[in-house]
ubiquitinyl hydrolase 1
Amino acid sequence: MGDEVETTSYQVEDGPQINQDELILAQQRQIEKEISESTALVGDQEPIISLNNEYSTDTVYQEKVKDLASKYKSIRKTRPDGNCFFRAFSYANIERLLDNKDEFNDFYKLAEDSKEVLVQLGFQQFTVEDFYDTYMEVLKRLRSNHQDQAADREAILTPERTPRTGPPITIPIPLLGRRLKST
């Protein structure tokens, strides 16, 4: 049947039997560990032209960087771990909302109501609760810092760039996207 998974293993001469799947998984975990140790969830702001250094031999890419630089002044790199789009979107949205108190309050209300809406849409309550409380704590902290005009923007956002609190800002985005699609 299609559900069967074939594993590959072989015996080393006069040694133990080695499972190829386990070796592949171990290698994957090692690669993920190296990436997590060397790449921040969300990097510091950099001038867009810093991309020129990475792709100095690619003239097509250099032209694209030049075009981007005419529209934007900086970038933040994200860890390439499968959540990078959602993390970049979430982080940029929150960063943008810090500049607009009314929009931030509207978004806060949307996030606050999202738990009920997601459960009504059929998501399991325990699944939603896994991220909801942490996500709302992040937004509450940002909202209290948002009112302090002297607060350093980087200091406000730094906790959302660490593994402990970073992932929850990405989790609601696909779920909220489904909500927007269904309304």
In short: Residues 9-38 form one domain. The first strand starts at residue 9 and ends at 11. The chain has a mean pLDDT of 77.
